[in-house]
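Appendix C reproduces, verbatim, an entry submitted by the partner laboratory led by Prof. M.T., so that reviewers can inspect both the input and the predicted structure.
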Amino acid sequence: MLTIGRLADYAGVTIKAIRHYHERGLLAEPARDSSGYRRYTAKDAVDLVKIRTLANAGVPLARIKDLLDADPDTLTSAIADIDHNLQDRIAQLRRVRDQLAQLCGGDRLFVSPEVADYLDDLRELGVSERAIHLERDGWIIMQTASPEDACLWIAEKRELMTDPEFRALCLEYDAAYDWSPDDPRLPVLADRTRNWFANHQGRSETRPVHNPAIARLAEQSLPGASSPAWDRLAQLMEG
């Protein structure tokens, strides 16, 4: 007869684990001696080793009880099913690891490679991180809800970055975020922007989008998507 401590040492588990197996109904409660202490038999030791072996192999505790006394065919089938589930879990964990690795790439986890390259172009140009984050979040919304618009826009945006005047407008528009709405530079910037658009008809910025509601959502719902100076600039552009 074995005490719970000696049984735990023999099977290579903790006393806490044995008590947990009792609570789960995996290991039968043994008889107690006259002092009220549990006394385990050789069969209890064998059952405990089986439980430990199945648990260490990844078999869920909820299934172990049914497998302890299963016939060889049933056990083989159950183990094959558990192995298949483990393979699915391993594949899922690998995908999670790939996503974690992509986090090191920053924006590339959330947007297409083309958009990520465009955002890198903006950083290289000197555009603020505030503006880049706004751009990124807008692209996340657009790519999810209207991929055809996003595909069209990003191709043309990348092309526009080769235009020196467009790059200059990007920088000045970014800087204008913090200007006073009465800043005399705003009307000048509005005129330059209108002139640029007039000379570049057919660009995606002037085309109707396939999903206008999503375009409005991207403009209106992103924190920091406007400022008093930008609002004034929009008014001047419409005038």
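The chain has a mean pLDDT of 83. Additional entries are available on request from the coordinating office.
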